[in-house]
Write a structure and sequence with these properties.
It is built from three helices and six strands. It has about 90 residues and is α+β, with helices and mostly antiparallel strands. Helix 1 packs antiparallel against helix 3. This is Transcriptional regulator.
């Protein structure tokens, strides 16, 4: 499976079960199951609110990192990366 990232939260999608689902139950290849279910986003939020939400999982993200991110570093990286994701492009 090629490297895919959720176009809402930026999470790497590494298995079929992690894909979101469209209203008809088919797989949505752009969004993860945490962000997109039954053909709609699970949360109506701004990009900054999504970044705040994702920062809750920083410890999990950092667990295999040689140089873990601080909360401030992670926020700065997400503020650069998220505008490139489909959901947040202006």
């Amino acid at each position: 499976m090629e490297n895919k990232f959720c176009q809402s939260c930026g999470m790497p999608i590494t298995s079929e079960e992690q894909f979101g689902r469209n209203a008809d139950g088919s797989k949505n290849e752009e969004y993860c199951s945490y962000c997109y279910r039954d053909g709609a986003f699970t949360e109506n939020c701004t990009m900054d609110e999504m970044i705040d939400h994702c920062l809750q999982f920083l410890d999990e993200f950092n667990k295999d990192m040689e140089h873990p991110y601080t909360k401030e570093e992670a926020r700065a990286e997400m503020q650069k990366f998220f505008p490139m994701l489909k959901r947040w492009r202006s």
